[in-house]
Every structure is written in structure tokens, then in C-alpha cells.
Predict the structure.
Amino acid sequence: MRRHRQREEARRTILGATEALLVEDGYEAFSMRRLAERCGYTAPTIYHHFGDKPGLLHTLLEERFSDLRERVRAVGSCDDAAETMRALAHAFVDFGMRNPTFYRLLMTPRPEAEGPPRAAEEARAVLEEPIYDLDRAGRLYAADVETTKQTVWVLLHGLIHLRLSRPDHPWSDDLVEVALDSLLRGTVRPRPAAESRQAS
């Protein structure tokens, strides 16, 4: 049991140091030597836990995105896809604000040869599912679903990035709610009256 705890502590420490270095210096400047200096574990120990540098980076991204995936999966579905879209947007913004280091890592450009982690694609699919539902129901104002998706991501990343980068600014307490109201009014048509009555 003690050995297991020591392994888990080493693993968490190495991953945390890896995340911090990637945010500070980017992927190109990242090195196992600097990681060993930062985390206090030797390179052989790091290799023992993660195999090699690509294995380490893959594990970090997969774990961090898995946390996001599980957070948005826990939201569930509402009767109205627009309300599901709102709830998922809230969850994403909340996750980004509570995990600023991960969010900055999310925004750090990765080498083009590296595809997105599986958990990242799964989290994105959950977040975008209600947009496709609204498109199939003919409720999007935009002519193509891609425009709506990009609009949503621009707003969500703006809400997180600006508040993280300017924590000293007196941001409004209801900023997120007002922004999401504006987003939904500008991108989603109201539900037909008959459908609304059936839902109630």
C-alpha cells in the first residue's frame, strides 16, 4: 500500500510539473532534463513511469481532458436542446475557471503531427451534440452548423481567457449568464409553441 501511494505521488508530481512547464515554455522548449529539475525525480524514474517523452505528454493530456469529459458528461440532457447547450456551456466555463493551469495548457499550441487526445474529442462531442440537435430541428439561425459551433467556442473561450488574464478587472457577477443569454438569442430560434406546451 505504501509503495502504491509513493508511485501515485510521484506520478502526480511529474504530471503537475510537466503541465506547468508546457504552459510556461510551450511544447518545443519542453525537455526531460528541465522536467527532472522541476519535479525532483530523475530522468530514469520519469521514464519508468511513462515510457518516453511522447508517452508522458499523451498521459498528461489524456488525464486532463478525461476530467473535462467527465464534467460535461455529468451535465445530462434537458428537454430543450438549447437549455442543454446552456448547461454544458456553464460547465465548460466553470471547469476552465477552476482549472486555470489546464486551461492555459489547452490553449498552448501542440505540434501539428500530434492529433488531439481521445478524451478531448469525446469532450468536444458532448459539448457540440446539442448544437447538432438544434440544427436537425431547424432551430439555428446560421445557414451552417459550423458557424454556430465557432460562435459558441469564441464566446466560451473569451469568457474564460479574459477573466483568467485580467483577474484584477471588476467583472460583473452575472457576466456568464448574460453572455449565454445573448448567445442563445443570437444563434437559436425559439422552440415552436406547440412543442413547448407538450414539454410542459
